[in-house]
Amino acid sequence: MKKQFIAGNWKMNLTLDEAGDLARKLYVELDNSSAVDIGVFPAFVFLRDICDIFHGNKVYVGAQNMYLEKSGAFTGEVSGGMLRDVGCTHVIIGHSERRTIFLETNSVINSKIKAALSCGLKPIVCVGEKQEERDADKTYEVVGDQLSEGLAGLTSEEAGELTIAYEPVWAIGTGKTATPEQANEVHTFIRNTIKSKYDVDTAQSIRIQYGGSVNSKNADELLGQPEIDGALVGGASLESGSFLDIVSAAGRLS
Ligand code: PGA
């Protein structure tokens, strides 16, 4: 079994003080065991402070988004190099909120993944279908397109740097979780897609997280599925107790 990767997507939440308190609680509570990989993804403006709190120990720190160019006249945007500069190791790319609200296409996501990799950031690439797409039996078609267009042109070494997060859009922030079986089925599809695009080794080594209303109650069952290698957690990552419960659930499996 691969090492599980539990990531907390804080989204546009918390004040600077609250973000600092949450990070310090996690730092104190987490032991030094490396049984589980853990990451937090605060808002851009808090990244430097949160990186300082963890100073490279116990928890990876990453951004929720980045721009695809290295520098220049792109008012309001943040480059991968800037993220590296403040201590980030990871970046979430293609979250469904970026796709839906900020109209990011698979092709933009593909460029962002390449830009992240070129400056040494490890992307968590999000994929997932909307409710109407699931109802129309289009889950595999949608997720298949997100993977083939999103990962276009990546070598197997580059693909090996990615974490994929399967986040059914209908399960995000709704309290409606995919059943462990539903999630495991799509994870299997994702792994098979990676296998046919690359090779068995890449497919086996890549971690596929589940995201969408993961909490302390459902974590055991979801993470216990054979093809689920971790979780991308939104709401339940804003409170240290529930996030640590999910980390513990992952720890029991490793
Ligand atoms: P949620 O969010 O856990 O609040 O559903 C998950 C995500 O959007 O990454």
Automatic annotation (TrEMBL):
The active site is at 95 (electrophile), 167 (proton acceptor). One of its GO terms (biological process) is gluconeogenesis. It is found in: Cytoplasm. Substrate binds at residues 9-11, 173, 213, 234-235. It comes from the Bacteria. One of its GO terms (cellular component) is cytosol. Signal peptide: none annotated. CDD domains: TIM (cd00311). Its main location: cytoplasm. It catalyses: D-glyceraldehyde 3-phosphate = dihydroxyacetone phosphate. One of its GO terms (molecular function) is triose-phosphate isomerase activity. It holds the Pfam family TIM. Pathway: Carbohydrate biosynthesis; gluconeogenesis; Carbohydrate degradation; glycolysis; D-glyceraldehyde 3-phosphate from glycerone phosphate: step 1/1. InterPro entries: Aldolase_TIM, TIM_sf, TrioseP_Isoase_bac/euk, Triosephosphate_isomerase, Triosephosphate_isomerase_AS. Keywords: Cytoplasm, Gluconeogenesis, Glycolysis, Isomerase. Its EC number is 5.3.1.1. Homodimer. Belongs to the triosephosphate isomerase family. NCBIfam families: tim. Involved in the gluconeogenesis. Catalyzes stereospecifically the conversion of dihydroxyacetone phosphate (DHAP) to D-glyceraldehyde-3-phosphate (G3P). This is Triosephosphate isomerase. It comes from Candidatus Scalindua arabica.
